[in-house]
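Researcher: Let's run the pair from yesterday's discussion. Sequence first, then tokens, for each.
Model: Starting with the first of the pair.
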Amino acid sequence: MWADSRWIAAPDGWLEARATAAGALDRLELLEPGLPPAGASRFEGVFSVVVNDRSKKLRRLPTLYFKKAPVFTGRDDIEVVRMTTSVAQTVMRSVTSPTYLVTACEIHRRLGLYARDVHNRSSYRLKLARVGGRFSENPFVTFAGKGTFECHEWGAFSPEFVVLGLPAPDDVVRTTGALLVFLIATRRIRKLSSSELHELVGALGTLEALSADDPELLATTIGG
């Protein structure tokens, strides 16, 4: 399946980027020539680019996977490779910057954290966007401490809510406390230190997370 494989040198090891078509990664920045040196730490299949097979009648949009999760689908290969560079840079910075696979979002002019899914073209996100939701392009946020997070579009911000994906067929389910902290902590890239966990508890302690199967109901509830 994988026709191309390249390596990116990160501060704590080598990250593999692979693609289903030869040459698809030629525009990917950060690549190192050749293979990682003998004995180096290797992390295989961190970034996977699945591009369109033009020989098939059923065509799909090219998609970037982070490990096994689809995180970005674009209109063409160039757009997806560009996003691969951005995501790779974020993952490399996560060695020193606390980084979470959570998307910054804005709903009814309120900034929050979106942790229901990680794919930019998930059906729920698209429906939420139709009722006024906006999302950061990068699927990660950086935890800046003192209750604030950072993303490229909005810089440092203090989230007012969190969106989760717990089952909620008939109403809005609200989540606070230890369960909320646990669900966000599991999205940390690399190891979470005890001191950071303490700060994360403080940052999320006053927040309420909302889950709803109906995106319009969710947006209305957040808008108040």
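Model: Moving on to the second of the pair.
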Amino acid sequence: MFYQISVEELNILWVLTVILLIGKFLLVFFLGYKIIERKKKTGEFSMGFVFGVFITILFLLISRIFYSFFDFVYTGFDSTKFHTFPAIVYWKLGAFISILGYSIFLLITDRKVLDLKLKGIPGIILLIIASIILLYPIANPGDFEFISIFFIFANLVAIVIPIIFFIMARKKTPFRIPAIALALGVIIYAIGSNITIEPLMNAVAQAVGTSVRIPIFTLSLIFKLLGLALFAFGVTEFAIKFSKE
């Protein structure tokens, strides 16, 4: 049975979503500025760590725009509409772009920071998962729940990202605190993303009641905002040092 979302709940979710979009936009603008600033200073364009983070946040911003259409325009958080057209197109594009952003980040970081110690494998796996989600045909709620499971696999692979940051924080350098902030930010943001995965959401809804969906969506956005704030702090510290090099 579908829980009818109230106007107040919808407004709260919309405000949190707008704040999240603004936060991502500001972070993208700041990183873009620092990348351009360094290019003017050195005369070279660097596709290094900061550029990888820039691409990731940019893709998460674009992804959230697609998800916003899915949530607020086409489904209204009604799980019975998740598989319907054109809502599913927006969800697929949002999912594909977000996972693709993580894939690009891992590929760049593996090459520029880890000297290909990971052989590009995590990034390639994420690219494959993103492609499966985009191309898999969805015609009913069962299909939607099945393909949502691939997010769990994607998140397991993406665990590599905070591990990379924690490894960077092992040594006592000026980058230690930013690296820890980045790692914690990614973890908290990931928690916010994971708790809305449909198989998990559906299991909780069946156990507690469909009305739990809206509090979970709200909690998800709050976790994402907290994670983004920590991530923004860490990235800002990295970017300031990066532009001065």
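Researcher: Give me one sentence on the second I can quote.
Model: The CA atoms of residues 182 and 231 lie 5 Å apart.
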